[in-house]
Specification:
It contains two helices and eleven strands, in the order ββββαβββββββα. By secondary structure, the chain is of the alpha+beta class. A hairpin with a 4-residue loop joins β1 and β2. It is globular and about 50 Å long. The protein starts with 15 loop residues before the first strand and ends with a helix.
Length: 217
């Protein structure tokens, strides 16, 4: 789930910016928006170049990023399994990335654990963050917890480990897509109902006006 975070293995020593905001569904699928950027260098004037597996191409979108002196890419993905998310992380990170990440399920408990090695990067100019939203209550974590969202800020010049355990039954609750669809559908139904009421009221008023005009004549 930390695909963007793990991309630091692609970056030369220097100022880097990696922000990952991810969401896990009750179906064990992951969606995310991951920013991977660095100050331009002669070797990588456009910043790190993510390499997306062909099998995930329909669920991953890569857009260029250029702001505050950083260049790179914004990687957005959806509906990736835990295994696919790990594979995406491995692909983006390259062979030189010093990291570990794993997912495991035991009953209703899902555990995410891993580490990021930033020992080769200077302490100044490094901005690496991770934020993950879980579908159920977080039972344990070494990050900062806010409701069902856990966040970490990785420290440069060393190795940072992270872990979080969440409790939810696989497919037990309706995912965000259902609620988004229900909301959209509900809004459409209400709008249609209001429109029908308006048309009915308009026709009723026209009928009254015609009756009144006929009586007056």
């Amino acid at each position: 789930m930390t695909a963007g975070l793990l991309a630091v293995g692609l970056l030369a020593s220097g100022c880097v910016r990696v922000h990952a905001a991810l969401a896990v569904s009750s179906s064990d699928l992951v969606a995310g928006d991951i920013l991977i950027a660095a100050q331009p260098s002669a070797a990588e004037p456009q910043g790190p170049q993510p390499d997306i597996p062909t099998a995930m191409a329909s669920r991953v979108v890569v857009r260029p990023y250029d702001a505050d002196g950083y260049t790179g890419h914004d990687v957005r993905f959806h509906d990736l399994t835990f295994t696919e998310t790990t594979a995406l992380a491995n692909t983006i990170s390259g062979q030189n990335a010093a990291y570990h990440i794993a997912f495991s399920r035991s009953g209703d408990l899902v555990t995410m654990s891993g580490s990021v090695d930033l020992t080769q990067l200077p302490k100044a100019g490094v901005d690496v963050q991770l934020k993950v939203n879980f579908p159920g209550p977080v039972t344990h974590t070494d990050g900062s917890l806010n409701n069902d969202t856990v966040s970490w800020t990785m420290k440069p010049g060393g190795v940072t480990s992270f872990t979080a355990t969440d409790q939810y039954a696989l497919g037990n609750s309706r995912g965000w897509r259902f609620w988004a669809w229900s909301l959209a559908g509900g809004t459409a139904i209400v709008s249609a109902f209001i429109l029908l009421l308006a048309l009915w009221a308009r026709r009723r008023n026209l009928k009254k006006e015609r009756t009144y005009a006929a009586t007056a004549a």
